[in-house]
Known about the structure:
Blueprint: E1 3-19, E2 24-31, E3 37-43, H1 45-49, H2 53-56, H3 58-78, H4 87-129, E4 134-138, H5 142-159
Amino acid sequence: MEKICEFKSVRLKMKEIPMGEKGAMILRKDYDIAGAMDHRLVLGPRMILSHRAWIANLVPVVMAAALFFALLYGLMTAVMGVDFSSAGGRAAVIALIASLSVLSLASWAILSFMGAVKGLKRAHVVEMRGSGNWILVDSAEWDRFHRIMTAPKEDEEKAE
Length: 160
């Protein structure tokens, strides 16, 4: 099972421009649309599973699951009046732990997969084009991105 990623990389430059009567300088994002480069990356399971995003996403998911478990446990005790010392209460705790474990594993897998793909795409662009601020745009979304980025320039040209 391979994932094929087709995307474009656009350099993001920060430009200082004067604003106002006193000429206070503000930073403005400037995208180098003309210098956009096409990329095609084939990611295998080994590349995705060996990425560091799997470890980085484990701690936040475990913390969120523990918080969610504590909130549900408190609600079941205070609001619903569940007696956890009885047999039915123990079954409720086991069901709660099992459902939160499955939910945590699924969210960890989804977040880590997305993080690994994003990290591998960024590493590929840095390897091909060098370090810098890069915006990665999927090929399917390129037309929309290009339209949004060129619209203000067209408006400025019409105003002049």
